[in-house]
Amino acid sequence: MTRKQENFRLSLFGFGCLFLFLLVGCSDFFSPVKSTDTPTEYQFNYWLLQRTYLYEDELGNLPEEGDSVQVLYDALSDPYTRYTPPSKSEDVEISINTSIVPGDVGLEYMNYFVEGADDVSPILITRVYPNGPAAKAGVPRYGRILSVNGVKLFGNDAMARYDSVLTYNTEISLEISYDGKTKIYSMTKEDVYAPTIFLDTIQGITFITITEFKLNTADETNGTLGELRSYLDSTKNEKGTRVLDLRNNPGGHISQCVGAADMFISKGTLSTRYYYMFDPDGERSQQTISMEAQSGDPGEQGDFVILDNFASASCAEIFIAAMKELRHTPIIGDTTYGKGIGQSSWKTIENGLAIITNLEILTPLGNSYHKKGILPDYPCSEFPSRQCALDYLGGSTSLAKRTAPSPYGDIESRGAIFSRKTKSLGGALDNQLH
Question: Is residue 334 part of a domain?
C-alpha cells in the first residue's frame, strides 16, 4: 500500500479513530467498543469522486446512496473518468503501465496488395520486435507471410485468417517470402514487451517514432524514457535534422512524457498541472505541480523537428508543447487532439480500479490546449505523412533526392498505420498514485 493510499484509508475512517482515541483518553477504564464498519465499494467510490474529480460543479449529480458503482460514473460527463470492476482491474493496470502484448510472436504487419498480382500474399511484415519470438527465429522485416500453420494467406481475408490462427494456437509456423526466397520460421508465442521507440532512415533522414509513453516497455526498467535515452546516448554526435514522429501517439504517463521533453530541453518549466486531491484530513484540496528541466541530457544538442497529427493526444501534447514553447522546435503536421486534462488511478476497497480526471494541464507558457489542440508551425497540405516532413526538410537541406533504403519506400514515406497488438488507454496518467 502506498503512503497516499494509507493516508486515504486513515482519512476515510478518521472520525471513527478519533472517537475511539478520545473515549480511551478521557476514561478511567477500558471497555469493548464497536469498530467502524468498512465502507462498501459504492461508498468508497462516492467519497473518492467527491474529493478528486476535476469538475466540482458536477459532484451534486452523484447519488449519495446506491449499490451500482457504475451509476456514479455514469452521472458524470467526463468520458475519461471510469471504473473497472475487480475482475478486470489487473488487465487494465497492465495496459496502463506496460507495453506488454500477451501471447504474441512480436510482429507488426499490414495489408499491402500488389496491383494485378492476386497470387502475392498481402500481409507484409513492417516491424519485428527485438527479443520477441519472431526476432529469435530470425523473421525478416519486409517479408511477406505466405501461410501460418499451413493455412494459405491470399486475398482480401488473408489478415483475418492470420489473426484467427494466431489467436487460437500457441505454436506458430510462418512461411515467409523474402528477397526471392521462401523459408519456414517456427516459434512459440509468449508475452512480449513491445518497444515504444522505433527508428527508420528515409531519404537520409532519421525518423524517431514514439508510439506511447509507458513505464515498462522493451526497456522493462525505465520504459519509454530508457528506450529514448539509449538511442540519444548512442547518437550524441549525429549530424543533420532528425524527425520526432508522434503521430497517433495517444499519450501515457506524465512522468514519461515530461521526462522525455527534459532530454531535449536544458531549462524552463516543462509543464504545470493543477489537480484535486484529498489532504491528510480527508478534505478536498487543490494543489499545483510544476516540473522544471534539468540540463545535461543527450538530446539537448542537435536539430529536431516534430511530426504530429490530429491523433497526437494528451501526454504527447505535453511533450509537443514543451518542445514548441521552450526549444522552439518546428511542428509539422496538423492540429493535435486537444486533451489538456489528465487522470489519476486508485485501487478500491474491493480491488477495483478508479480512474478519475483530476488534472488540468498547462503548457510552459501557461496556455491551455484542452479542446483546442496545438497548432502546427507548418501544416501539411494533404494529411500529415512522413513525406510531408521530408518535403519540409528537403526544401531546407537538399536531401529530398536521396532514396529510401527499404524496398517499400512508399510505405515508409507515407507512414502507414501498422497493425499493433498493444492495447492502450492513452491519456495523461499521473503515476504518482499507482
Answer: yes
Would you list the DSSP string of 57-117?
Answer: GGGGGS-SS-S-HHHHHHTS--TT-EEE-HHHHHHHHHHHHB-EEEEE--EEEEE-PPTT-
C-beta separation of 197 from 227 below 8 A: yes
Per DSSP, the three-state class of 242 is strand
- Render pLDDT for 71-103 as a digit per residue (tens, 0 to 9): 999 999 999 999 999 999 999 999 999 999 999
151 band by pLDDT with thresholds 50, 70 and 90: very high
The boundaries of the domain holding residue 412 are 194-433
User: Could you tell me the CA-to-CA distances from 246 to 241, 292, 318, 406 in Å, in that order?
Assistant: 16, 22, 12, 21
Are 262 and 270 in contact, with CB atoms under 8 Å apart? yes
Q: Check: CB of residue 271 under 8 Å from CB of residue 236.
A: no
**Grid-cell match 488473408, residue found:** 158
**pLDDT digit string, tens, across residues 261-293:** 999 999 999 999 999 999 999 999 999 999 999
Count: domains in the chain: 3
Beta-carbon neighbour count of residue 60 at 10 Å? 8
Task: Give every CB contact of residue 331 below 8 A, 6+ residues apart in sequence.
Answer: 305, 306, 308, 320, 323, 324, 374, 375, 376, 377, 378
Dist CA 115 CA 363 (whole Å): 47
Are both 4 and 138 inside the same structural domain?
Answer: no
Amino acid at 224: T
Asked whether residue 262 falls in the same domain as residue 366, the answer is yes
Kindly state whether residue 95 falls inside one of the protein's structural domains. Answer: no
Q: What is the DSSP string of 262-320?
A: HTT--SSEEEEEEEEEE-TTS-EEEEEEEEE--S--GGGSSEEEEE--TT--THHHHHH
For residue 46, is it within any domain?
no
Q: How many residues does the chain have?
A: 434
Q: Are 146 and 152 in contact (CB under 8 A)?
A: yes
The number of angstroms, rounded, from the C-alpha of 198 to the middle of its chain's C-alpha atoms is: 14
Specify whether 363 is located in the same domain as 411: yes
Where residue 374 falls (left for φ over 0; alpha for ψ -120 to 50; beta otherwise) is: beta
Helix axes 254-262, 223-234, angle to 10 degrees: 20
Task: Read off the pTM.
Answer: 0.85
Distinct helix (H) and strand (E) counts, the chain = 12, 21
C-alpha–C-alpha distance, residues 170 and 280, integer Å: 50
Does residue 135 sit in the same domain as residue 229?
Answer: no
Q: Is residue 396 part of a domain?
A: yes
The C-alpha atoms of residue 424 and residue 420 are separated, in whole angstroms, by 10
Say whether both 238 and 362 belong to one domain.
Answer: yes
